[in-house]
Design goal:
This protein is mainly beta. The chain has strands at residues 2-7, 10-13, 18-26, 33-39, 46-51, 58-60, 68-73, 78-83, 92-99, 106-109, 113-118.
């Protein structure tokens, strides 16, 4: 069993930066790929970034590529999302989720952290 908890959200001005953390409790964290999603009320959840179990590969949505960086520290059971050059359209609740393989179902979700970017 793995529990995920996001932190690091807040209110920043456009052009600023935030670093989100997704901390996992439980065993076998390194057995899971971790993805970040975001959601605005009334809109569908949007994929943001993904990282492999080892941290050796990652991918991003076009909307954040070049501005966000996903990383992980398996010794600390934590995945990070470094967000730079933030835009008002990045405002959302950000969630992390775990799955075993690319294409498999997500088995664990966090409760989310609010990110608000002011113009």
């Amino acid at each position: 069993q793995v529990q995920l908890a996001e932190s690091g959200g807040g209110l920043v001005q456009a052009g600023g930066s935030l670093r989100l953390s997704c901390a996992a409790s439980g065993r076998f964290f390194s057995n899971y790929r971790i993805d970040w999603f975001r959601q605005v009320p009334g809109k569908e959840r949007e994929f943001v970034a993904t990282i492999s179990r080892s941290g050796g590969s990652s991918d991003y949505s076009d909307s954040v590529k070049g501005r966000f960086t996903i990383s992980r520290d398996n010794a600390l059971n934590t995945v990070y999302l470094q967000m730079n050059s933030l835009k008002p359209e990045d405002t959302a609740v950000y969630y992390c989720a775990a799955r075993a393989e690319l294409g498999s179902e997500y088995v664990y979700w966090g409760r989310g952290t609010q990110v608000t970017i002011s113009s």
